[in-house]
Design a protein that fits this description.
The protein is mainly alpha-helical and 149 residues long. 72% of the residues lie in helices and 8% in strands. Strands 1-2 form a two-stranded antiparallel ribbon. The longest helix is centred in the middle third of the chain and has 27 residues. The protein is flat, with a radius of gyration of 20 Å.
Length: 149
């Protein structure tokens, strides 16, 4: 009888701390289920706020005064920013979300880019980057055709 030995440890690496330079600091981050959950939570909160705002676009354009539009848009952006800061605090430690926000020039756009890049790294570590990109493309296409069709 022939014995066949498979070493799955060579094919499936252990989760390990990866060195990441972010906001001028080197830090270690382990891409695991907890990190995935935190990144997913931040992304879901961002898109939920954006979609809720987008779903009210007709009302926003037709019924709101200029002041109400400005106030509504400002509140949505502040909610998204605060959500990102809170999520980054959970991921890197208390105060790090605000520090990163300050480091990147108090820019919500740049702070959300940080989260996007972390999600990409997580996807690469999990080996699902291509399937996630395909899925996101399909969701965007479906949303676009639903709105237009």
């Amino acid at each position: 009888m022939t014995a066949i030995n498979f070493d799955l440890d060579k094919k499936i690496p252990k989760a390990e701390v990866k060195a990441i330079k972010l906001g001028g600091k080197e830090r270690g981050l382990t891409f695991n289920d907890e990190t995935r959950k935190l990144l997913d939570d931040m992304t879901i909160k961002l898109f939920s706020t954006a979609h809720a705002f987008d779903d009210k676009s007709d009302e926003f354009i037709n019924d709101y005064t200029v002041g109400e539009r400005q106030n509504s848009l400002h509140q949505a952006i502040c909610a998204q920013r605060d959500s990102l800061i809170e999520g980054l605090d959970k991921l890197f430690g208390k105060g790090e979300g605000k520090r990163l926000y300050d480091y990147y020039g108090n820019s919500f756009t740049k702070l959300s880019a940080v989260v996007r890049e972390l999600v990409k790294l997580q996807d690469q570590e999990d080996g699902i980057a291509k399937s996630n990109a395909d899925r996101k493309r399909q969701v965007k296409r479906a949303r676009y055709t639903k709105k237009r069709g």
